[in-house]
Amino acid sequence: MTGARVLGVDSGGSGLRVALADAGAARRAGAPPAPGTLRSSEPVRTGPGGIDADHLLEQVVPMARALLDADPGGGPPVAVAVGAAGMASLGERLRAEVPGALARLLGVGRVALASDAVTAYAGALGQRPGAVVAGGTGMVALGTDLTRWRRADGWGHLLGDCGGGAWIGRAGLEAALRAHDGREGGSPALLAAAESAFGPARELPDRVYPRPDRPAVLASFAPEVGRCAADGDAVAARILALAARHVAEAAGAVCPEVPRGAPMSATGRRVVAGGPLAGGAPGAVAVAAVGPPEVALTGGLFRMGAPLLVPLREELSRRLPYARLVPAAGDPLDGALVLASALASGSLLLPRHPTLLHVPMESGA
């Protein structure tokens, strides 16, 4: 590894990952995997004060030092980006404590703290305008026109996450119980699948309601809905068609249209302004030439395949005819490296936000 180096951190419910990469190699989504990555299976604790900053640092700093020591010729990292689940609502301590601690302990001058939705966005689309839908147990959509962020859903399995894994699983189990009762809208195929997974239908409430991980339990049945739909079950197919509509609605709520009044570049692409240009004159901003907004899907939900993706592509094409559906280029750790590398080069275009993308040390001062 040669030249300036950056660190990316991805903290989520299944643990924490830290990666070290050349700043230039990490500058775009879809770059080759970082040559140095370490993992911890211990999730960062969350308490009454939000995400535990000390616990995050106790894991990140030794892992970062191990990566740096394995390649001692490059000096300290020039930038670090930390993406964390819960950053937007539970990240106050992280924003207050982590930038100074990383500067003191690792000698880093530029730090970004981001929601995991932002790092998912940057990993999937880089710094291009569009929308990213993250689907797993839940579902949330995040979009930007490079001047502001827009978010839709992500309200949890009781109030939202419409079209996510828990939503699909719950709808499938409802159809199973309708078949058990002899009500309209029931599916014998889903009833058989539910009893195979959970036991007799009459015991299903006792197996679901007391569980502290109820969203994950519900989501565990979503693949069975997909399997039944693929086998020709009309009820399962209708559930997935409605899920596709909900996901497309969220994408449509956040996906920007490129401003029609924006000036054109020599290549026929609109030119839009991003954030402050590090090292530039007062008021200078980074700019980018952008084409049509892009939409990417990321997360395990979309591994269900054709039973969900076929109706979803149709819904997206109908609701967002001006956008392009593209494969996600990378994951949230890749997104953290994209952010860190853009910080290092003073070319961060994604919009700053007090809780979604906090950049307190952008100037390196």
From TrEMBL:
Q: Which InterPro entries match?
A: ATPase_BadF, ATPase_NBD, Euk-type_GlcNAc_Kinase
Origin species: Streptomyces clavuligerus
**Low complexity biased stretches:** 26-39
Residue ranges of region Disordered?
26-52
Instruction: Give all residue intervals belonging to the ATPase BadF/BadG/BcrA/BcrD type domain.
Output: 101-258
Source superkingdom? Bacteria
The name this protein carries in UniProt is BadF/BadG/BcrA/BcrD ATPase family protein
Question: Which PANTHER family does the record associate with it?
Answer: N-ACETYL-D-GLUCOSAMINE KINASE (PTHR43190:SF3)
